[in-house]
């Protein structure tokens, strides 16, 4: 389905419930509806409804357009779920900035239905979509990516393996930082080319700070100038730049030492990407968690989907974690789960997955 925001009277008749929901939102936006209720993804807790005003959503869309130099007439591919903030804000950007939108129901490889003659200026993916596209190694799909002004990747962290693989893309690729409460992203991090960095840069007008835990708080027009306090632990390098270290509610206390599982995950991902003997693809999903332990309080474990680590990989991963983070950060056990539980947006539901451990 293609929607031209300058000609709503020529919008097509929806052929699926998903297209009907998409058109319902777009029509509500054009009717000047003053507020919209969206739901959080549920990745860090129970999904909850959040009301966002039209002014907040418009401010976010305009700021993204300014940051990425999007102009009226630039074609956008909308392949994120429009029932959640990331997909909804792709629609709002299209409607507000005058971007003709090709709407696709979310799939693993959104570019599979196009050929190299297709041209988009802007899109947003979740990491798994971009990973799937790159694994296909299709020159026509790479050509589509390389015509874009900007590609956003959000909804989950990008792995070192994915960040290495996407270096073949010449268009700017950015990791996003944001949430429903901040009306999508409020900061970007360049992932490819000479400008690649591990530091997020806040968009213009976004004020950052930290609380006593070192967790980020955000104030901007998109938050209606209310301070939004997050549970994300950051290293704030100055007033507009930060490194994301992990979530406070994921911190593991093992033997009195606080360990951030995200940092352990990054190291293991790097080891996996360079370990040819791994039994299965290097992109196999896993996460690090803390399980109750009588002696340590919590012991650090790795939960992996569908296949165990080979012994050599496990030993190497432990050694590298020990070298880089210290002995208290070394995972003690590996648990294999057939399939990870997921949230409605496809993120790993860690609590539900842990409950599946035999």
TrEMBL record:
The keyword rRNA processing does not apply. The keyword S-adenosyl-L-methionine does not apply. GO terms for biological process: fatty acid metabolic process. Residues 31-192 form the AMP-dependent synthetase/ligase domain. PANTHER family: ACYL-COA SYNTHETASE, ACYL-COA SYNTHETASE FAMILY MEMBER 3. Belongs to the ATP-dependent AMP-binding enzyme family. This is O-succinylbenzoic acid--CoA ligase.
């Amino acid at each position: 389905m293609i929607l031209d925001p300058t000609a709503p009277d020529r919008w097509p008749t929806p052929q699926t419930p998903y297209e009907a929901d998409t058109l319902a939102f777009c029509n509500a936006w054009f009717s000047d509806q003053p507020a919209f209720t969206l739901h959080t993804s549920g990745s860090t807790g129970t999904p909850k409804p959040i009301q966002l005003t039209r002014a907040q959503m418009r401010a976010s869309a305009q700021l993204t357009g300014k940051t990425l130099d999007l102009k009226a007439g630039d074609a956008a591919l909308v392949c994120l779920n429009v029932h959640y903030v990331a997909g909804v804000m792709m629609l709002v950007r299209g409607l507000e900035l005058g971007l003709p939108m090709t709407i696709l129901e979310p799939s693993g490889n959104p570019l599979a239905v196009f050929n190299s003659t297709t041209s988009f200026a802007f899109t947003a993916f979740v990491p798994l979509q971009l990973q799937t596209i790159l694994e296909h190694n299709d020159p026509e799909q790479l050509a589509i990516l390389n015509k874009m002004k900007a590609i956003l990747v959000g909804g989950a962290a990008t792995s070192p393996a994915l960040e290495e693989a996407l270096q073949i893309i010449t268009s700017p690729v950015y990791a996003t930082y944001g949430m429903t409460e901040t009306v999508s992203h409020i900061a970007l991090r360049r992932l490819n080319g000479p400008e690649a960095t591990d530091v997020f840069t806040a968009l213009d007008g976004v004020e950052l700070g930290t609380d006593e835990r070192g967790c980020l708080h955000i104030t901007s027009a998109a938050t209606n100038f209310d301070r939004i306090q997050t549970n994300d632990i950051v290293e704030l390098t100055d007033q507009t730049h930060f490194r994301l270290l992990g979530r406070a509610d994921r911190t593991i206390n093992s033997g009195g030492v606080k360990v951030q599982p995200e940092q352990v995950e990054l190291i293991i991902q790097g080891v996996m990407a360079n370990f040819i003997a791994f039994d299965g693809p290097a992109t196999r999903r896993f996460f690090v968690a803390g399980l109750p332990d009588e002696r340590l309080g919590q012991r650090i474990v790795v939960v992996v989907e569908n296949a165990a680590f080979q012994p050599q990989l496990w030993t190497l991963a432990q050694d590298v974690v020990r070298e880089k983070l210290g002995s208290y950060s070394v995972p003690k056990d590996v648990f294999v789960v057939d399939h990870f539980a997921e949230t409605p947006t496809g993120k790993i539901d860690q609590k539900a997955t842990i409950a599946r451990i035999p």
